[in-house]
Amino acid sequence: MHISFSWLKNFIDLEDDNLDSFLETLTLGGFEVEDFESENVIGKSDIVFDISTTANRSDTNSIVGFSLEIHNLFNKDFINPSFDRLINSIFNQKSFLPVHENQNFNSCSCFYGRCFHSVQVQDSPLWLQRRLLAAKINPVNSVVDLGNYMMLEWGQPVHIYDLNKINSLLSADEVKIGVRRSDSTESLIGLNDQKFDLSSRNLVVTANDIPISIAGILGSKDTEVSESTTSIFVECAVFPPEIIRQSSKSCGLRTDAASTYIKGVNSTFLPFVFKRLSSLLNILCFAQPSSNSIIYNSDIQEELKSIKVRYGRVIKILGPIKSGSNSSVLDKETISSYFRQLGFVTKNFVASSTSDLDSYWEVVVPSIRTHDLEEEVDIIEEIGRIHGFNNFVSDIPYPKKVGKIYSIEILKRQFKSALINLGLFESIHYSLVPSLDKEVLLNPFSKDQSNLRPNLLNGLIKSSIQNFDQNASSLSAFEFGRVFIQNKESSISEHELVAGIMGGRKYRTDWSVNSDYETWYQAKAKIDEIFYIFDLSPKWVKVEEGISSNSFFHPQRTAVLSVDGIKFGMFGQIHPKISNEYSLSPQTYLFEFNVTNIDAARNLNSRKQYKSYSFYPVVSRDLNFLFDKSIEYKKIEDIINKNAGPFLKSIRLLDTYQNQNSKGINLTFNLQFQSFSGTLVTAEVDETINQIQNSLEENFSIS
């Protein structure tokens, strides 16, 4: 919003040589001064400020509203006492327009209209042109300029129609104005010469049910005011912000009037704006008003609401003020003076006989501020703003209790560190995805972001495909994030997961061997290594069925991980359909685990269990067998454990070897034995080894 300093000084006595203090007070009062510059506007020097207001202060988006705010912040009187009396009279009235029920004004809060005749359209006077140019609005003619001037001065959009053109358009002597929703069969050519195909989302002003403007946004080219105009119809209305927002979005057009309505227009000033506009039209354009007016108002304000403000609450929220070497608090007299400065009416003040902190005020706020001052804390914020937030002591409160990091956060940090140590990069993807024919957001950003993601793997795989398309190396990455899954009852549940993608490229495990792809078991070992950090040994169960063709996982090379019946998630090879379609390596491995379940399993086994330490030496044996490739490793390990006896300490797979022409695979195991009662002799260990070998031969026909 551009504010002319010379125009502002018509309301408030401000000094040119104290601009730094003026700008600092504005900033501390909640207004961001983007820029200011000295300009020469039609032979007269002026200072123009570019000021940003907050969304809840639409009342300051005009020169009158901003002058009221300067009056409050600087505690300065208005130059013209009659203006002060006018503002007070407007604020203190309960209803602003007479009520007229009219079915022609649907979806419209207030509508004020009147016809003017004998209009003389000419160039605007220099003072009017200067004020428009300072606000970055180009003058057009005296009629159009006065409409723009009302929006700048009072924050009330005004639209003016050529009445003769309306009569020609209708071919009727009597014109009936209305407001309604449009339909898909209607269209309108705007003042910008653009054709708009209307819909039910658009609100239109009609003459005999024919659209003559898109309400609150843009007028029709067919009713534009020109130099030949002699009769006009003036519209001064208040439209609901949500309807104008929808209509503006539907048209793809955001005019100054639309922006003003979307921020919110208060009907407080509406009658006076119309009277002032009528007076200026008469003075500058010699316009003669008709005897009949259109008055519609469904937004009658009831008794102004009073808000209870407790003195103890004010002190608790704002705290002590800076006062020399000693710290003190705002006294009740100062707070009461701030209420008067803000234009608040103190309906009642109740002083407590037991404690000052129990005293309270009943405050009535002006009608122009009812949209942003609704609760006690809003009034307290105004007190702090007027006193100056920089004048309060800014000590950091001492915490009563030292905070702690929750166990699930510690788990995530440790898990993240482990994955990074394994060579994976952390990635972050949008939680919004294209529509999945399930739960669609009510107000999506776009079609590609119309649903909440049900998994993390989709984003990781897409990133891997993008890497491949750009001739980059295969992606090894992970992501922590939340997913949203629809239950059978159609309700949405939220889960925190960690997912990853790895493998897919050749590498050397030793200088003497050729580079090769990572195997399923090597990828599995990485996952086991991570869980070992948390003292967890998950159970790996192969998924025999239940993996659909739409899944990311391989139907035959996927496992579910769990500990004590608590399922973590899945690990497996990428589905061949995906790898073939997008030319990804088949040796790509995926995992997706539920972080909450992992934390629950870790907490379940959080108590350390200590074992006795044996003082006797370990006996180690290496065994090599040729197995058929169809035999699962878990079954082999179970047979060894079953026949190894009580002295088996550990089993470790040392090496695997497979001849390309062979259907079998060589597995080399290292078995360690140890006793707690004495040193094991060779005969005992050999007997156990023979028993293991015989059992493996019986079950798997090994050699």
Summed over residues and divided by their number, the pLDDT gives a mean of 87
CATH topology of the largest domain: BirA Bifunctional Protein, domain 2
Major β-sheet strand ordering: 19-22-23-29-28-27-26
**Portion in helices:** 25-40%
CATH H-level name of the largest domain... which superfamily?
Bira Bifunctional Protein, Domain 2
* CATH class categorisation of the largest domain: Alpha Beta
Number of strands: 32
C-alpha-based Rg, rounded: 39 Å
* Beta fraction: 25-35%
What is the number of helices? 20
The number of distinct structural domains comes to: 5
List low-pLDDT spans.
93-102
Terminal residue distance = 88 Å
Largest sheet: 7 strands, mixed
Sheet/helix structural class = alpha+beta
**Level-2 CATH architecture of the largest domain:** 2-Layer Sandwich
Overall 3D geometry?
Answer: elongated
Topology:
Elements: E1 2-4, H1 5-8, H2 19-28, E2 32-41, E3 44-52, H3 63-74, H4 81-92, E4 110-117, H5 126-134, H6 142-154, E5 158-162, H7 163-170, E6 177-181, E7 187-189, E8 195-197, E9 203-207, E10 210-214, E11 218-219, E12 232-238, H8 241-251, H9 256-263, H10 270-285, E13 288-297, E14 306-310, H11 311-318, E15 321-323, E16 326-328, H12 332-341, E17 345-350, E18 360-364, H13 376-387, H14 407-421, E19 425-426, E20 432-433, E21 451-452, H15 457-469, E22 477-486, E23 492-503, E24 506-507, E25 516-517, H16 520-533, E26 539-542, E27 553-563, E28 566-574, H17 576-581, E29 588-594, H18 595-604, E30 619-628, H19 633-643, E31 648-657, E32 664-673, H20 682-700
Parallel strand pairs: 19-22
Antiparallel strand pairs: 1-3, 2-3, 4-12, 4-13, 5-12, 6-9, 7-8, 9-10, 10-11, 14-18, 15-16, 17-18, 20-21, 22-23, 23-29, 24-25, 26-27, 27-28, 28-29, 30-32, 31-32
